[in-house]
From TrEMBL:
It catalyses: guanosine(2069) in 23S rRNA + S-adenosyl-L-methionine = N(2)-methylguanosine(2069) in 23S rRNA + S-adenosyl-L-homocysteine + H(+); guanosine(2445) in 23S rRNA + S-adenosyl-L-methionine = N(2)-methylguanosine(2445) in 23S rRNA + S-adenosyl-L-homocysteine + H(+). This is Ribosomal RNA large subunit methyltransferase K/L. Its EC number is 2.1.1.173, 2.1.1.264. PROSITE patterns: N6_MTASE, THUMP. The keyword RNA-binding applies. One of its GO terms (cellular component) is cytoplasm. Specifically methylates the guanine in position 2445 (m2G2445) and the guanine in position 2069 (m7G2069) of 23S rRNA. It comes from Saccharospirillum salsuginis. One of its GO terms (molecular function) is RNA binding. It is an enzyme of class 2 (transferase).
Amino acid sequence: MSSNLHTETDLDVWVTCPNGFHGLLKREIADLTGQTPADWSQGVSVRGELDIAYRLCLWSRLANRVYLGLGQSSEVSVDGLRELVESVAWDAHLRPSGTLRVDFHGRMDGIDDARYGGQKVKDFIVDQFRDRHGVRPNVDRDNPDVTVYVQVRRKRIDLGIDLSGDSLHRRGYRQATGPAPLKENLAAAVLMAADWPERVRDGQAFIDPLCGSGTLVVEAAMIAADIAPGLLRKRFGFEQWLGHDRSLWNDLVSEARQRRQTGEASMPPVLGYDADGGVVARANETLERLGLYRQARCYHKPLDQWTRPTHLTLKPGLVVSNPPYGERLGNKPELLALYRRIGDLFRNELSDWTLGLLTSDAVLARETGLRAGEKHRFFNGRIETHLYVFTPGERAAEPSPAQTEQDEALRNRLRKNLKQRRKWLKKQDIEAYRLYDADLPEFAIAVDVYGDALHVQEYAPPKDIPEDKARQRLLHAMAVLAEVTGIPVERIELKQRQRQKGRQQYERQSESGEFFTIREEGVRLRVNLKDYLDTGVFLDHRPTRTWIQKQAGGRSVLNLFCYTGAATAHAYVGQAASTTSVDLSRTYLNWARENLRLNGGKPDHQHRFIQADCLKWLRENTERFDLIFMDPPTFSNSSRMTDTLDIQRDHVELIEQAMRSLNPDGVLVFSNNFRKFKLDESLIERYQVKDVTHLSVPEDFKRKRPHQCWHLRHR
């Protein structure tokens, strides 16, 4: 059925698009329709005949959805909504026996839920049908004849019909992809911003050296072949709409098919390359289904093996790529070499081509060593990205002499530290140690070696250092670390460390579950570099753990605030008669049990693990122990505790309660890492107190005193 209901009067057509596309979409609409589009709250609007709406559904490469505007109201209320909906003659759009769906967006007084808003609009519509025809349409959420669109804003309600159906970015060609594919309309926006349509008319070629599943290649090929993206779609939202003019639509489709034939015959080469043969194969399958395999093709080739193709005659044109940019900071250092390689290729192999680089990371973009002539902002989902356009003949960005000098200084310091560490590592059975701790002011990081992995903690940079500059230094430091240590960047875990309160240092940061074992003085300890701020072993307490191991033979040992029970494992290996480990965290007590098992022990009545607030437990304890180790946090306000713990304020009671649990000839090892901590004079008068900090700080922590430590005995 066709209708001329909407062909005699100008229609309001509303078009939505992703963030960052607005200017490009207005230009595209003007080119497609010959009309000058206007701004609309959710995108762009244009007035004209039905032909315009159909052309946008068929040809727009940037739009998400196309709506037919039915009305607007400045009365933002339930009554205003009812009046607006009831002003439309719905039987001109939908059969009484048809189906509908309502997409409601926004809130107003009386409607604070989109589903409830949709229900109210549906009720207004079906009530009109029931009054006029005695029957009403049904709701179909999956495949309705008409989808009604409602957008509520602070000062206006928009009411329309969704002509597009599914989002227009879903062209219909994508079946299987690689990881993190670009949306089709984002790929098209990147190509349009880099003037690919104009380059096609000039016969220029296209290359994507990191094509992945080939979205940029496919979209570039479709533009080059003049293929309307809507030709591939199986369904549009207007097909069961009563205002649909099938004859007009069929004419537009026939025109598009003819343009495709002409475009395919003259399109320039479009090429893609990737190191993943699987995604390359799937990209080629898509090109074959589109009938574009003759002029557009993807090849299996890693970037480090890439050279300018010689098997085709290519007119220098456009290179566009969307290299990985790493959502997590710790993933970025391994990308430095990738971006540097892109810069090298552009300077050496593709110097007469234009390069478009889409990335979310300005620091990585600078690593290309290129200076962008243009920069466009787009959003890849919620990730803000920028398209950097580098044109031939532009002067490359000069490398920073200061950065080069800083990198070399760090390289030399790391080599020096490694050489020094090896001297004493050979004498001891140690696999985990500190390699570097902010030795140079430009690189405020702490670097710990754990076997064949590195744990890097970045201290918060000074406020006068720009964020981009601090991040660039950090990524350079990671690259230098990998170079000097020989540990690949994927085995380097990076975290930002700031001052922690209470048990924040113990809170879960990730969910990798990646544990492995290190060896220390014959003791095996379980560590995890990813999931928590700390790793499961405080490296600066290594000498104290060794001392406990040597003193534990035949003794009863109490480990308070035991964390993952490293000191307990040392005591067990030292043949302690019994061990008792107390901590508030069930997670870390389970970890402590695993450390005991790793060393041949078995949690039982002889080796106990108690979940409790240590101070409360000490107050109620009636047992006595020969050796007590207590390393409390500086501050703790865990929800499981009855009171907060402040080590400076509460250490007198903590120590007195611990001494009450200590046998007459026993020893309490007390330490903490609060830099301003001062031991109360009353404790020195009451007990034999020996400051052993100089003995408890290991060789790799001598540069900065990480803790203080005392031995306390009864007088």
